[in-house]
Amino acid sequence: MKFLIVFVALFAVALAAPTGEVTILRSESDVGPENFSYAFETSDGTAAQESGVLKNAGSEQEAIAVQGSYKFIADDGVTYEVTYIADENGFQPSGAHLPVAPEA
Questions:
Q1: Three-state SS annotation for the chain
Q2: Which are the contacts of 47, defined by CB distance < 8 A and separation ≥ 6?
Q3: What is the superkingdom listed in this entry's lineage (predicted)?
Q4: pLDDT tens for residues 43-98?
């Protein structure tokens, strides 16, 4: 599951990358039995970091709680950044460019 999360994040960044040669400036990862973290940065201004922990290990309410962020420079030259939490309450992104739902 952790490998899948890391793979999907890296795949998304690869798809968003502009054409041309991009080099990896920093790449770190640490994967344990009940937690993980990774971070990377590329020469085109793309960066991401994420960490997660297994909550309620061994119970029926076992879940992975994740927090992280990613940023990239879009075709319009603007740097977009998203921070997020993903846990038993779902995926909760936030960013200056993302719409915010009105209060209920």
A1: CHHHHHHHHHHHHHHHCCCCCCCEEEEEEEECCCEEEEEEEECCCCEEEEEEEEECCCCCCCEEEEEEEEEEECCCCCEEEEEEEEECCEEEEECCCCCCCCCC
A2: 39, 40, 41, 70, 71, 72
A3: Eukaryota
A4: 999 999 999 999 988 888 888 999 999 999 999 999 999 999 999 889 999 999 98
pTM greater than 0.85 = no
d(CA 73, CA 92): 22
CA dihedral sign, ordered 53, 101, 72, 11: positive
State the amino acid at position 75 in one-letter form: D
Closest CA to 17 of 53, 55, 43: 43
CB contact at 8 A, 104 and 82 = no
Angle 36-47-51 from CA coordinates, rounded to 5°: 15
Range of the domain at 38: 21-94
Count up the domains in the chain and report the number.
Answer: 1
